[in-house]
Design goal:
globular; two-stranded antiparallel ribbon; 2 strands; 2 domains; mainly alpha; 274 residues
Length: 274
């Protein structure tokens, strides 16, 4: 039976390779074959928690009560309807928002539902609704949520366009018509990921700080969050690596788990944050 101790052992071996390279990338050619230990990490993570069931607990009542207490969100009922729909979808499970059923399948119902699902999935219980409410307030215009909804729709369309460079421009360019105020690379890419099927060619991958460190450690490419070319390389290389062994989002999750470990080694080695 796989345990978290097994995962820790693989992480230790990967970070030792990183240390041996002088706290630098173990490879500098992104198209080179990745360390076999990365696939071992993918396998162990899947045994402990299959990728489609990778989820986060959420409390719908906290969302409902918190959002009703905010006076700056226009058309609040539209948001509460999305919360209620996600509540129904998670009621049959264990109260968790999980990758496939509540992220990918939520995109069938407009853009507010996947927005709520992504915020609930990506933040801790106490922070999720607060962060969502700030984005809703700052993105509203003229007493309407429609400007934000239109931007989310453009972001969704880019997520399905098989054009990762253009997608990344939506969060790196302040002039992008798909840019949503307050939705940085981590959550814009989470939303994009939710809006596309996980096993289709060109499906976006999540680009947060952890994945950025993990990808840099095994390829030398920095920074997938802020450079559209680096993000596109990340999406393509993850699909190339996955091949018929796993899914690209399983590579992403392994890099996400690896990221904090190599970041800590780098800080200790260099005596400063990057």
């Amino acid at each position: 039976m796989t345990t978290r101790r097994d995962i820790a052992g693989v992480l230790s071996a990967l970070t030792e390779a990183f240390e041996a390279a002088g706290a630098g990338p173990v490879a500098t050619d992104p198209h080179a074959h990745p360390p076999e230990l990365l696939f071992e990490l993918v396998k162990l993570l899947d045994q402990v928690n299959p990728i489609d069931e990778h989820g986060t607990a959420w409390h719908p009542s906290t969302w409902e009560g918190g959002l009703r207490g905010r006076r700056g969100i226009p058309e609040l009922n539209r948001v509460l309807d999305a919360v209620e729909e996600l509540k129904k979808r998670t009621a049959t499970g264990d109260g968790h928002v999980v990758r496939r059923h509540h992220l990918h399948e939520s995109a069938e119902a407009g853009v507010l539902l996947p927005f709520v699902a992504v915020m609930a999935w990506g933040y801790s219980v106490g922070r999720a609704w607060r962060r969502a409410s700030r984005i809703l307030e700052s993105s509203a215009s003229g007493g309407s949520l429609q400007p934000m909804i239109e931007r989310l729709e453009r972001l969704r369309d880019l997520a399905r366009s098989n054009n990762p460079e253009a997608l990344a421009m939506s969060w790196t360019s302040k002039r992008s018509p798909a840019r949503v105020a307050g939705l940085g690379p981590a959550f814009a890419s989470k939303f994009a990921y939710a809006c596309a099927a996980p096993d289709e060619p060109g499906t976006p991958l999540i680009a947060d700080r952890r994945a950025a460190w993990g990808f840099w450690a095994v390829t030398g490419t920095w920074d997938i969050r802020k450079d559209p070319d680096a993000y596109a390389e990340y999406v393509r290389v993850a699909r190339e690596w996955a091949g018929d062994r796993c899914r690209p989002d399983e590579i992403e999750r392994a890099l996400f788990v690896l990221g904090p470990a190599v970041e800590l080694v780098w800080k200790n080695y260099h005596g400063k944050a990057r």
